[in-house]
What does this fold into?
Amino acid sequence: ICLRCFALVLQDAVKIPGHKHPLLVYYNYRGQCSACGKDFFCPYRCKDCNIHLCLWCVLRPIRVRHKCDKHLLTLTYDNINDYAKYHYCDICEKERDPKKWFYYCETCDTSAHVDCVLGEYPLIKLGSIYNEGEHPHPLTFVKKFPYYPECVECGKLCEDLSLECAEPGCNYNTHWKCRKSAILW
It folds into this structure.
């Protein structure tokens, strides 16, 4: 767990921009995140507004830059474009659930799914080094192109985020998802 996440977990209350009340941690509470819709355990919650947030949504950046717009996009949970009959993501062009949070540019009226803006792995930098106890050499985060090596964990081709050993003669390649699940269990 990173230092930022760890520090947040230790707090009993957090304040997020644009929300007037602090969000309190409710231990042993299960529910659904108001921002992303995923099920969670132990959320940050505002009883007054009936908002429940998972840790990942509390950690989301408020403003981000993306190639879909020349301005900064702002994380939004208001129904800014309620006047629209349809809610679409300007990146993937699929329908967007107006009840879920999204990134928005007020100047250009650009709106996009959070995952389309941040990507599936927003906190992982390609090329960064990952050390773990089970493999004797440092591993590098990569997305393989033009060839895809076979994952040592599941045997499928590593077409997504993967870990690669750059040590000469070592052909260790594994999906990040396979490695992550092996670490957690």
